[in-house]
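In this supplementary section we document a worked example of the pipeline. Step one takes a protein sequence of length 186 as its only input; no multiple sequence alignment statistics are reported here. Step two produces a three-dimensional model, which step three serialises into structure tokens for compact storage. The input and output of this example are shown verbatim.
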Amino acid sequence: PLLTARLTEIYEALAGLALMLDDADAARLSQERAVDLFDVPGIDERQGRVMAIARLRTLDRWADLNFRLGDFETASLTYREIAETTIAIGEDDGAVETPWPRVARTLVKLGVSRREMGDRSGALEAFEAAGFVTRTLLSDARTLPASHRPLSMQLSFIQGRIEEIGGEIRPTENIAPHVLPISDET
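The serialised model returned by step three reads:
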């Protein structure tokens, strides 16, 4: 894992340098190599979780790079994978509430990339899902008060994007128990 972390840093630095030199192909290649470092067999369970989280961070940078370079389809697919993997890691850990803010942010990125691709319905679905998760976090008593302002700003951004597309935010009642199914009995 330590070697992988160092190599990831090197590849990502090379990708950044390539971007500064306006070499999009070299940037993509370097970032893709960083992602490929995580496709290694024979990792134990503890290392697997650490590696999965590191892979998510690398995938996030890969998706952002593709978005910046105008490859919205690759960015969109990667953002979707990030959301799915984040949820799976949180569920495996037993702390289902932990990944939800990251999932919401990733869904916002997915919505923006879908909108850039001209996929109105895909963008609307992603923004609605992000809004649902964000509203759920705001209505959940376990959400720290310090998180309310950033979440409110995120929800405002999401609402603006939905209105731009011509959709509307559906009203919800107490939806937190349905999205964050954590029992106090455990």
